[in-house]
Every structure is written in C-alpha cells, then in structure tokens.
Specification:
This is RNA polymerase sigma-70 factor, ECF subfamily. InterPro entries: RNA_pol_sigma-70-like, RNA_pol_sigma-70_dom, RNA_pol_sigma70_bacteroid, RNA_pol_sigma70_r2, RNA_pol_sigma70_r4_t2, RNA_pol_sigma_r2, RNA_pol_sigma_r3/r4-like, WH-like_DNA-bd_sf. Belongs to the sigma-70 factor family. ECF subfamily. This protein is 84% helix and 0% strand. The protein is an all-alpha fold. It contains eight helices and no strands. The chain has two domains: 102 residues, Rna Polymerase Sigma Factor, Chain: A (Orthogonal Bundle), CATH 1.10.1740.10; 77 residues, Arc Repressor Mutant, subunit A, CATH 1.10.10.10.
C-alpha cells in the first residue's frame, strides 16, 4: 500500500469508528474529554506502529484493545487514588475524634491541681520540720491553733508564726499559679 492509500484508509477508519471508540471509552471513564483523548491516542499509536502489525490484524479490534487498556489503567489509578483518599480521610477522622475526645476529657483544673500539689509537697519538704508539721496539722488535719499549741507545748502565737512562715514559702513557690487560682475560684 502506498502512503496515499494508507492515509485514505486511516481517514475512513477514523470516520467509521471514532464515535464508537469514544462512546466505548466514555462508558467506562465517564468523562468525554478523557474518552476522546484515549481514542485519539489509540489511533495515533496504531498509525505510528501500523507497519509492525501482521497483515491479517483486525485493526478496529486492535485500536479498541488499546483504548480498553487505557481505560483500565485510568480506572485502576482512580481506584487507587480513591482508596488512598478514603484511608487518609479515615485517619484524619480518627485523629480528629481522638483530639476531640482528649480535649473533652481534659480538666485544666485537675492538671493545675496536680502540679500545684507537687509544688506544695516540695515546698513543705523544704521547710523546717516543726513549721511543716504545724502547717499540716492546721490545714490538712483541721486542728485549731489552740489544739496545735497544746499538742506541741508552744504558744498560739508560735503556731501563727509557723503557719505564716509556711504560707509565705508557699506563696513564693506558687506565684506563677496565682492568676490560675483566681480564674478557677
């Protein structure tokens, strides 16, 4: 076949089958522009490789096979993208749910209370034993100044002195928490 005859045969093939090929591809990819691209690409591939084909090759079937493979590749790629997108969305939803649940369970007052208790414990441990014991009896055991004085054989003024000393040390240790305490109280 000479070049002119080949070109006429190709133009006839294009005229006879183009719309059928596009409909076939569009049925699967559901995008006319992509279906048209696949059809043109398949026809061009056939034209560029026509001399390598055996003479008895069914050319429309050959081109349709190329289109089928392009559609399969396209759909497989879309399926992979959808699966990855779904997985990412699932992970994002899980992460968001976790953050929401974590925030719902978060009790700032309890967090600060735990930190403040730790600071109070360390501060009390740093005080002289008698000052610490008097403060504990007063604040934790709810003993009156007179009961503490009688128990330790000291004056109530001495009890007040030790409590004031402990409170001053705690005020210094907890200075950063005073605004928070005012906020929560």
């Amino acid at each position: 076949m000479n070049a002119t005859t080949e070109l006429k045969a190709f133009n006839q093939l294009f005229t006879d089958y183009q719309s059928r090929f596009i409909r076939f591809a569009n049925f699967y990819v559901r995008d006319t522009a992509i279906a048209e691209d696949f059809t043109i690409e398949a026809l061009m591939y056939y034209w560029e490789n026509r001399h390598r084909l055996e003479s008895e090759t069914n050319i429309p079937a050959y081109i349709l096979t190329i289109i089928k493979n392009k559609c399969l590749n396209h759909l497989t790629h879309r399926q992979t993208v959808e699966n990855v997108s779904e997985m990412l969305l699932t992970n994002a939803q899980w992460e968001l749910s976790t953050r929401v649940a974590s925030l719902q369970e978060c009790e700032p007052y309890e967090l600060f209370t735990a930190e403040m208790n730790e600071i109070v414990d360390k501060t009390l441990e740093s005080l002289p034993k008698q000052t610490k014991d008097i403060f504990i009896m007063s604040r934790y055991q709810n003993m009156s100044h007179k009961e503490i004085a009688d128990k330790l054989n000291i004056t109530t003024k001495g009890v007040e002195f030790h409590i004031s000393k402990a409170i001053k040390a705690l005020r210094i240790s907890l200075k950063d928490y005073m605004p928070v305490l005012l906020f929560f109280l």
